[in-house]
Amino acid sequence: MRAREDTSMIPERYASYEKTVTLGAANFTCVPGDKAANLEKIELTIHEAASQGIDIVAFPEEALTGCGGCSPCLEGAEHCDYHADLAETVPGPSTERVAELAKKLDIYVAFGMIERDPHDPSVLYNAAALVGPEGIQGTYRKLHLGSLPWVTEGITFKPGTAIPIFETRFGPIGLIICYDFWFNPELTRLLALKGARVILNCCASFDAPLKRENMIGTTCTRAQENLVYTLSANQVSGSDRPESYAAGAVDEGRSGHYAGNSVIAGPSFPRFAEPLAVAGPAEELISATVSFEKLHRWENIFPWREWRATRLSATSKLIASEFEKLVHGP
Fold first, then answer.
1. Buried b (16+ CB within 10 A) or exposed e, 216-232
2. Which of 57, 150, 162, 289 would disulfide-bridge 22, Cβ 3.0–4.6 Å?
3. Which pLDDT does position 65 carry in this prediction?
4. pLDDT category, 6, cuts 50, 70, 90?
5. Position 148 in a domain
6. DSSP bridge pairs for 129
7. pLDDT tier at 4 (50, 70, 90 boundaries)?
8. Omega of the bond prior to 185 within 30 degrees of 0, cis?
Protein backbone atom coordinates (compact mmCIF):
# COMPACT_ATOMS: atom_id res chain seq x y z
CA MET A 1 0.00 0.00 0.00
CA ARG A 2 1.51 3.34 -1.06
CA ALA A 3 1.48 6.57 0.91
CA ARG A 4 -0.55 9.50 -0.44
CA GLU A 5 1.45 11.70 -2.80
CA ASP A 6 1.78 14.78 -0.57
CA THR A 7 4.68 17.19 -0.80
CA SER A 8 4.69 17.21 2.98
CA MET A 9 3.49 14.41 5.19
CA ILE A 10 3.15 16.67 8.25
CA PRO A 11 -0.52 17.09 9.32
CA GLU A 12 -1.75 20.65 9.78
CA ARG A 13 -1.93 20.31 13.57
CA TYR A 14 1.85 19.71 13.65
CA ALA A 15 2.84 22.12 10.86
CA SER A 16 4.25 24.81 13.17
CA TYR A 17 6.65 22.45 14.97
CA GLU A 18 10.21 21.64 13.98
CA LYS A 19 10.52 18.78 11.51
CA THR A 20 13.42 16.91 13.13
CA VAL A 21 14.64 16.40 16.68
CA THR A 22 17.77 14.91 18.20
CA LEU A 23 16.93 12.74 21.20
CA GLY A 24 19.38 11.80 23.93
CA ALA A 25 19.22 9.16 26.67
CA ALA A 26 21.57 9.12 29.65
CA ASN A 27 22.78 5.76 30.95
CA PHE A 28 23.22 7.26 34.41
CA THR A 29 24.66 6.21 37.79
CA CYS A 30 23.10 7.94 40.80
CA VAL A 31 24.73 8.65 44.15
CA PRO A 32 22.01 7.34 46.50
CA GLY A 33 20.55 10.05 48.70
CA ASP A 34 22.91 12.80 47.51
CA LYS A 35 20.87 15.31 45.52
CA ALA A 36 23.74 17.78 45.27
CA ALA A 37 26.06 15.21 43.70
CA ASN A 38 23.37 13.92 41.35
CA LEU A 39 22.36 17.42 40.32
CA GLU A 40 25.96 18.23 39.47
CA LYS A 41 26.19 15.04 37.36
CA ILE A 42 22.90 15.86 35.64
CA GLU A 43 24.16 19.34 34.78
CA LEU A 44 27.45 18.01 33.41
CA THR A 45 25.53 15.55 31.24
CA ILE A 46 23.21 18.32 30.01
CA HIS A 47 26.25 20.34 28.96
CA GLU A 48 27.58 17.30 27.09
CA ALA A 49 24.19 16.72 25.45
CA ALA A 50 23.98 20.32 24.30
CA SER A 51 27.52 20.16 22.89
CA GLN A 52 26.43 17.15 20.79
CA GLY A 53 23.41 19.01 19.41
CA ILE A 54 20.85 17.03 21.41
CA ASP A 55 17.47 18.79 21.64
CA ILE A 56 15.75 16.61 24.25
CA VAL A 57 17.69 14.59 26.81
CA ALA A 58 16.14 12.16 29.28
CA PHE A 59 17.55 10.85 32.54
CA PRO A 60 16.39 7.77 34.50
CA GLU A 61 13.71 7.36 37.12
CA GLU A 62 14.65 9.10 40.39
CA ALA A 63 17.90 10.30 38.82
CA LEU A 64 17.98 13.15 41.32
CA THR A 65 17.99 10.87 44.38
CA GLY A 66 18.65 7.26 43.47
CA CYS A 67 16.03 4.60 44.06
CA GLY A 68 15.48 1.01 45.15
CA GLY A 69 13.93 -1.02 47.95
CA CYS A 70 13.85 0.69 51.36
CA SER A 71 13.85 -1.28 54.62
CA PRO A 72 12.63 1.65 56.82
CA CYS A 73 9.66 2.21 54.49
CA LEU A 74 8.91 -1.52 54.63
CA GLU A 75 9.11 -1.64 58.42
CA GLY A 76 7.06 1.52 58.94
CA ALA A 77 4.50 0.76 56.20
CA GLU A 78 4.81 4.36 54.96
CA HIS A 79 7.44 6.65 53.54
CA CYS A 80 10.39 7.16 55.86
CA ASP A 81 12.21 10.37 56.84
CA TYR A 82 14.93 9.58 54.30
CA HIS A 83 12.50 9.92 51.39
CA ALA A 84 10.66 12.85 52.95
CA ASP A 85 13.94 14.76 53.22
CA LEU A 86 14.74 14.10 49.54
CA ALA A 87 11.35 15.26 48.26
CA GLU A 88 10.75 18.65 46.62
CA THR A 89 7.74 20.50 45.33
CA VAL A 90 7.68 21.58 41.69
CA PRO A 91 8.63 24.33 41.08
CA GLY A 92 11.43 23.82 43.57
CA PRO A 93 15.19 24.25 43.95
CA SER A 94 16.26 21.41 41.64
CA THR A 95 13.74 21.97 38.85
CA GLU A 96 14.43 25.71 38.87
CA ARG A 97 18.18 25.11 38.67
CA VAL A 98 17.90 22.64 35.79
CA ALA A 99 15.38 24.90 34.03
CA GLU A 100 17.85 27.79 34.21
CA LEU A 101 20.51 25.65 32.53
CA ALA A 102 18.01 24.34 29.97
CA LYS A 103 17.12 27.90 29.00
CA LYS A 104 20.79 28.86 28.70
CA LEU A 105 21.60 25.84 26.51
CA ASP A 106 18.29 25.76 24.59
CA ILE A 107 17.53 22.14 25.48
CA TYR A 108 14.66 20.13 26.99
CA VAL A 109 15.47 17.90 29.96
CA ALA A 110 13.41 15.13 31.58
CA PHE A 111 14.63 13.66 34.86
CA GLY A 112 13.22 11.50 37.64
CA MET A 113 12.77 12.88 41.16
CA ILE A 114 10.74 12.54 44.35
CA GLU A 115 7.96 15.14 44.22
CA ARG A 116 6.14 16.42 47.29
CA ASP A 117 2.46 17.23 46.84
CA PRO A 118 2.11 21.03 47.08
CA HIS A 119 -1.26 20.73 48.82
CA ASP A 120 -0.50 17.81 51.14
CA PRO A 121 3.17 17.68 52.22
CA SER A 122 2.71 14.15 53.59
CA VAL A 123 2.15 12.78 50.07
CA LEU A 124 5.15 11.88 47.91
CA TYR A 125 5.21 10.91 44.23
CA ASN A 126 7.67 9.06 42.04
CA ALA A 127 7.77 11.75 39.36
CA ALA A 128 9.54 12.82 36.20
CA ALA A 129 9.99 16.54 35.62
CA LEU A 130 10.25 18.21 32.23
CA VAL A 131 12.02 21.55 31.87
CA GLY A 132 13.03 23.45 28.77
CA PRO A 133 13.95 26.81 27.30
CA GLU A 134 10.50 28.09 28.29
CA GLY A 135 10.98 27.05 31.92
CA ILE A 136 9.41 24.28 34.01
CA GLN A 137 6.88 22.40 31.88
CA GLY A 138 5.52 20.21 34.68
CA THR A 139 5.73 16.66 36.03
CA TYR A 140 4.36 13.24 35.31
CA ARG A 141 3.65 11.12 38.39
CA LYS A 142 4.09 7.37 38.08
CA LEU A 143 0.77 5.51 38.01
CA HIS A 144 1.80 1.86 38.34
CA LEU A 145 3.92 1.57 41.47
CA GLY A 146 5.90 -1.61 42.02
CA SER A 147 4.94 -3.83 44.93
CA LEU A 148 6.50 -6.37 47.27
CA PRO A 149 8.53 -8.49 47.14
CA TRP A 150 10.24 -6.65 44.30
CA VAL A 151 10.26 -3.04 45.46
CA THR A 152 8.82 -0.86 48.21
CA GLU A 153 7.80 2.14 46.09
CA GLY A 154 4.13 1.24 46.52
CA ILE A 155 4.62 1.98 50.23
CA THR A 156 6.78 5.07 49.77
CA PHE A 157 4.73 6.85 47.10
CA LYS A 158 1.16 7.55 46.07
CA PRO A 159 0.19 6.95 42.43
CA GLY A 160 -0.39 9.87 40.10
CA THR A 161 -3.85 10.84 38.88
CA ALA A 162 -3.19 12.24 35.39
CA ILE A 163 -1.71 11.31 32.00
CA PRO A 164 -0.46 14.66 30.67
CA ILE A 165 1.32 15.60 27.49
CA PHE A 166 3.71 18.55 27.33
CA GLU A 167 4.09 21.19 24.64
CA THR A 168 7.55 21.76 23.16
CA ARG A 169 8.75 23.37 19.96
CA PHE A 170 9.03 19.82 18.60
CA GLY A 171 5.38 19.17 19.33
CA PRO A 172 3.66 17.46 22.26
CA ILE A 173 5.69 14.80 24.07
CA GLY A 174 4.77 12.30 26.75
CA LEU A 175 6.59 11.19 29.88
CA ILE A 176 6.22 7.76 31.40
CA ILE A 177 8.03 5.90 34.18
CA CYS A 178 9.32 2.31 34.11
CA TYR A 179 6.44 -0.09 35.03
CA ASP A 180 4.05 2.27 33.24
CA PHE A 181 5.96 1.56 30.03
CA TRP A 182 7.20 -2.02 30.36
CA PHE A 183 3.98 -3.68 31.58
CA ASN A 184 1.16 -1.27 30.71
CA PRO A 185 1.06 -0.63 26.95
CA GLU A 186 -2.26 1.20 27.17
CA LEU A 187 -0.52 4.25 28.68
CA THR A 188 1.79 4.70 25.69
CA ARG A 189 -1.25 4.25 23.45
CA LEU A 190 -3.16 6.97 25.32
CA LEU A 191 -0.24 9.40 25.08
CA ALA A 192 -0.05 8.76 21.34
CA LEU A 193 -3.80 9.24 20.92
CA LYS A 194 -3.50 12.55 22.78
CA GLY A 195 -0.99 13.70 20.19
CA ALA A 196 2.45 12.83 21.57
CA ARG A 197 4.97 11.86 18.88
CA VAL A 198 7.89 11.37 21.28
CA ILE A 199 7.53 9.36 24.48
CA LEU A 200 10.28 9.41 27.10
CA ASN A 201 10.49 6.48 29.51
CA CYS A 202 12.50 7.38 32.62
CA CYS A 203 13.25 4.00 34.18
CA ALA A 204 15.27 2.15 36.79
CA SER A 205 15.24 -1.42 35.50
CA PHE A 206 17.23 -4.12 37.26
CA ASP A 207 19.54 -6.48 35.47
CA ALA A 208 18.27 -9.98 34.71
CA PRO A 209 18.79 -12.70 32.09
CA LEU A 210 17.82 -11.34 28.65
CA LYS A 211 17.07 -7.89 30.11
CA ARG A 212 18.95 -6.12 27.32
CA GLU A 213 16.94 -7.93 24.66
CA ASN A 214 13.71 -7.22 26.55
CA MET A 215 14.42 -3.50 26.89
CA ILE A 216 15.28 -3.15 23.21
CA GLY A 217 12.31 -5.26 22.11
CA THR A 218 9.73 -3.48 24.27
CA THR A 219 10.97 0.01 23.41
CA CYS A 220 10.83 -0.90 19.72
CA THR A 221 7.38 -2.47 20.06
CA ARG A 222 5.91 0.63 21.75
CA ALA A 223 7.32 2.71 18.88
CA GLN A 224 5.92 0.46 16.15
CA GLU A 225 2.45 -0.14 17.57
CA ASN A 226 1.88 3.58 18.20
CA LEU A 227 3.92 5.12 15.35
CA VAL A 228 5.92 7.28 17.74
CA TYR A 229 9.55 7.70 18.71
CA THR A 230 10.33 6.08 22.05
CA LEU A 231 13.23 6.45 24.43
CA SER A 232 14.10 4.48 27.56
CA ALA A 233 16.71 6.08 29.84
CA ASN A 234 17.90 3.64 32.49
CA GLN A 235 20.00 3.73 35.62
CA VAL A 236 23.41 2.07 35.91
CA SER A 237 24.53 0.70 39.28
CA GLY A 238 27.62 2.19 40.91
CA SER A 239 30.06 0.61 43.33
CA ASP A 240 29.01 3.00 46.13
CA ARG A 241 25.39 1.85 46.21
CA PRO A 242 24.70 0.62 49.79
CA GLU A 243 23.31 -2.87 50.14
CA SER A 244 20.61 -1.69 52.55
CA TYR A 245 19.18 0.42 49.72
CA ALA A 246 19.14 -2.36 47.15
CA ALA A 247 16.23 -4.54 46.09
CA GLY A 248 18.14 -7.39 47.69
CA ALA A 249 17.21 -5.92 51.07
CA VAL A 250 13.65 -6.98 50.28
CA ASP A 251 14.20 -10.05 48.12
CA GLU A 252 17.61 -11.73 48.22
CA GLY A 253 16.79 -13.67 45.06
CA ARG A 254 16.82 -10.60 42.85
CA SER A 255 19.69 -8.56 41.46
CA GLY A 256 20.13 -5.14 43.03
CA HIS A 257 22.04 -3.89 40.00
CA TYR A 258 20.56 -1.63 37.36
CA ALA A 259 20.97 -2.79 33.78
CA GLY A 260 21.74 0.37 31.82
CA ASN A 261 21.02 -0.50 28.16
CA SER A 262 19.17 2.75 27.43
CA VAL A 263 17.39 2.65 24.05
CA ILE A 264 16.05 5.04 21.41
CA ALA A 265 13.67 3.53 18.84
CA GLY A 266 11.34 4.44 16.00
CA PRO A 267 8.81 2.75 13.71
CA SER A 268 9.59 1.50 10.22
CA PHE A 269 7.69 -0.04 7.31
CA PRO A 270 7.60 -2.57 5.78
CA ARG A 271 10.11 -3.72 8.39
CA PHE A 272 9.30 -3.61 12.06
CA ALA A 273 10.71 -1.02 14.45
CA GLU A 274 14.43 -1.00 15.01
CA PRO A 275 16.64 0.51 17.69
CA LEU A 276 18.19 3.78 16.57
CA ALA A 277 20.71 3.82 19.43
CA VAL A 278 21.45 1.42 22.29
CA ALA A 279 23.71 1.90 25.30
CA GLY A 280 25.73 -0.74 27.09
CA PRO A 281 25.89 -1.54 30.84
CA ALA A 282 28.12 1.44 31.76
CA GLU A 283 27.53 5.19 31.93
CA GLU A 284 27.19 6.84 28.52
CA LEU A 285 25.04 9.25 26.54
CA ILE A 286 23.37 7.96 23.38
CA SER A 287 21.54 9.98 20.76
CA ALA A 288 19.60 9.75 17.51
CA THR A 289 18.25 12.37 15.11
CA VAL A 290 14.75 11.51 13.93
CA SER A 291 12.38 12.90 11.30
CA PHE A 292 8.73 13.70 11.92
CA GLU A 293 8.09 13.73 8.17
CA LYS A 294 9.20 10.10 8.11
CA LEU A 295 6.95 9.36 11.08
CA HIS A 296 3.90 10.81 9.34
CA ARG A 297 4.77 8.99 6.12
CA TRP A 298 4.19 5.75 8.04
CA GLU A 299 0.99 7.19 9.50
CA ASN A 300 -0.29 7.91 6.00
CA ILE A 301 0.20 4.22 5.27
CA PHE A 302 -1.38 3.12 8.54
CA PRO A 303 -3.51 6.00 9.95
CA TRP A 304 -4.52 4.25 13.13
CA ARG A 305 -5.26 7.45 15.10
CA GLU A 306 -7.75 8.53 12.44
CA TRP A 307 -9.31 5.07 12.43
CA ARG A 308 -9.77 5.15 16.20
CA ALA A 309 -11.89 8.30 15.89
CA THR A 310 -13.80 7.25 12.74
CA ARG A 311 -14.34 3.73 11.41
CA LEU A 312 -13.07 2.12 14.63
CA SER A 313 -14.89 4.46 17.01
CA ALA A 314 -17.28 1.69 18.06
CA THR A 315 -14.31 -0.54 18.85
CA SER A 316 -12.73 2.25 20.91
CA LYS A 317 -15.96 2.60 22.91
CA LEU A 318 -16.14 -1.17 23.42
CA ILE A 319 -12.57 -1.31 24.75
CA ALA A 320 -13.26 1.63 27.08
CA SER A 321 -16.44 0.00 28.41
CA GLU A 322 -14.65 -3.30 29.05
CA PHE A 323 -12.01 -1.48 31.08
CA GLU A 324 -14.82 0.26 32.98
CA LYS A 325 -16.43 -3.10 33.78
CA LEU A 326 -13.15 -4.46 35.12
CA VAL A 327 -12.97 -1.55 37.55
CA HIS A 328 -16.61 -1.17 38.57
CA GLY A 329 -18.17 -4.46 37.53
CA PRO A 330 -20.76 -5.11 34.78
1. bebbbbbbbbbbbbbbb
2. 289
3. 95
4. very low
5. yes
6. 111, 139
7. very low
8. no
User: What backbone phi and psi angles, to 5 degrees, belong to 159?
Assistant: -75, 155
* 110 bridge partner residues: 58, 130
- Output the domain CATH number for residue 202: 3.60.110.10
Any alpha helices (H) in 24-92, and if so which ranges? Answer: 35-51, 71-76, 81-86
Q: How confident is the model at residue 256 (pLDDT cuts 50, 70, 90)?
A: low
Residues whose CB is less than 8 angstroms from the CB of residue 277 and which lie 6 or more positions away in sequence, other chains included: 25, 263, 264, 286, 287, 288
- The catalytic residue positions are 61, 142, 178
| Alpha-carbon span 90 to 93, nearest angstrom | 8
- 62: in domain: yes
Asked if residue 327 is part of any domain, the answer here is no
Q: Would you say 197 and 228 are in contact if contact means Cβ atoms under 8 Å apart?
A: yes
178 is a domain residue: yes
Peptide bond before residue 149 is cis, with ω within 30 degrees of 0: yes
Overall average pLDDT of the 197-201 stretch: 99
Confidence at residue 109, expressed as pLDDT on a 0 to 100 scale = 99
The angle subtended at Cα 122 by Cα 116 and Cα 128, nearest 5°, is 25
Q: Which domain holds residue 204?
A: 18-302
Main-chain dihedrals φ then ψ at residue 318, nearest 5 degrees:
-60, -45
